[in-house]
Write a structure and sequence with these properties.
single chain, about 230 residues, mainly alpha, about 0% strand
Length: about 230
């Protein structure tokens, strides 16, 4: 059981690597384009549509690979409070929502490059939809962080170190500027700005790697747990 839980935890870093590799192939990285130049947006999708579609399809696969990590996080939250596993259930539900928010924008980006004869205005619309869904639908992510943090602080077993709770609260706080992308087309609060794209991307990747490490650490206790305890967990 521990080996399976370890594989599930390691899916988090794999998710990050494959998603970022897909963005790099598509051309979204290393420097993402901004919302202020519609001509640049159209050229991004039409100059090499095959590369764009391949990159975002790869990125969609990467985002989906986070599912096992969130499953094992929910499992450990359930172990923290077996009698009243409310926070574990909330985490499981919200994890599904965050996966959807991360997954579908990748396909919308690919869709924008699907037809080279598409009206430029439609390409801009699809691009705006993908960017703003991905980076401004942030409330479920914040709730996920807060729920995980609260569960850790309430855990008498300390399956996860308490500092992981405070890191989760910091990550939730770092997402607060993201909805400002609706009001700025240039500068640090645009969708490609430092306070929306770079801060959110950095802290979310940090969050995934830390939760992977915390789960691997918590998985060690599965070796020594009696079979009946594991069934109850």
């Amino acid at each position: 059981m521990k080996k399976l839980a370890d594989y599930a935890a390691l899916s988090g870093p794999v998710c990050v690597v494959i998603t970022l590799a897909g963005w790099l192939i598509a051309g979204l990285l290393p420097l993402p384009f901004g919302p202020d130049d519609q001509g640049e947006i159209v050229h991004f999708f039409l100059d090499d549509p095959g590369r764009v579609k391949a990159g975002f399809v790869i990125a969609s696969v990467g985002t989906a690979l986070a599912m096992p990590l969130w499953a094992v996080v929910s499992f450990h939250l359930f172990r923290m409070n077996r009698r009243m596993p409310l926070l574990a259930l909330v985490q499981a539900m919200i994890a599904v929502v965050t996966l959807v928010i991360n997954f579908f924008p990748q396909l919308i980006f690919a869709l924008a490059a699907f037809r080279t004869d598409r009206d430029p205005g439609d390409i801009v619309l699809l691009n705006d939809l993908a960017w703003l869904l991905l980076f401004t639908g942030i409330v479920p992510f914040m709730v996920q962080n807060v729920v995980i943090g609260i569960a850790i602080l309430r855990d008498p077993q300390q399956l996860f170190p308490r500092w992981v709770a405070w890191l989760n609260f910091f990550v939730a706080f770092s997402f607060i500027p993201d909805p400002l992308a609706y009001f700025f087309k240039t500068g640090p609060f645009a969708w490609n700005g430092i306070f929306v794209f770079w801060l959110a991307l950095t802290t979310y990747c940090l969050f995934i790697f830390v939760m992977c490490w915390a789960c691997l650490r918590a998985n060690r206790s599965l070796d020594d747990a009696p079979a009946t305890a594991l069934q109850g967990a």
